[in-house]
């Protein structure tokens, strides 16, 4: 693995300027990343954490710049990056790129982890992960090196978990239109539709075929894995030992309680807490799947993430409630979800 440093990207006046770097994955694919770093301080006790930000499916890493800058201003070093095929990691001919969600985890996120371990020796590694970014954590062979994880709406888009009110529309959009256009074009031309960034076909198929058990999504070409390989993927999730706080919003049609819990059950060796917030609890009309990273939530939601990364504990002064909590080893990834209880019950978004 190697990396080459480029000139700093433009940033707001008087704000810390991230440095653009290229990180080569194990297969040689160049990933574009941006790094916010403080000057080395040998006397820093405890050591300054490094936070890697994992993006949602087909969302450019620049979407997270404001949040990354805020983390940097609050004492963290930060790395954001584009998965292969997305944003500044897009090749000239996207239709020729073979990449699925699995590649984003076991190749791309793994490469970033290795880069951080090599360039930030002795610093604890934390991860903030949005949507599929929480899923790809489990796929990285080196995920045992992560100290703490904070996820936002993290799940892997099994259609039965979509909010009932929106399920049919989402089924049509993501499980009918997306794979059809991907087959016709060789990739999913999402930008023309105004939906998200253009997306590799394998990623579109990972999403549109997403099964109740994620490993069952990879039984057919062109994203097929053997039974032994699929079993190994599940075991890899067990490698994560990090403390994990999963944030979800009650009006997120992707991040419903069943969807969040479905993913969390794979992290069998992590202490896991699921924190659920309604828009009304923070005095706004909506949060949804994306707004957590908007700067208007700098004072109301972002401190929840920072407190967790710093202390591995909930900030009890923040709004919300615990939807679930369990210690490492307390559950199996394939155990059926519990029946709804009073604490988890809420109106469907």
UniProtKB/TrEMBL annotation:
Keyword Metal-binding on entry: no
GO molecular function: hydrolase activity
Domain Serine aminopeptidase S33: 48-200
Keywords (A to Z) from UniProt: Hydrolase
Superkingdom, natural source: Bacteria
InterPro entries assigned: AB_hydrolase_fold, Hydrolase_4, UCP037442_abhydr
Signal peptide range: none
Pfam families reported in the protein's UniProt record: Hydrolase_4
Coiled-coil boundaries: none
Protein name as annotated: Alpha/beta fold hydrolase
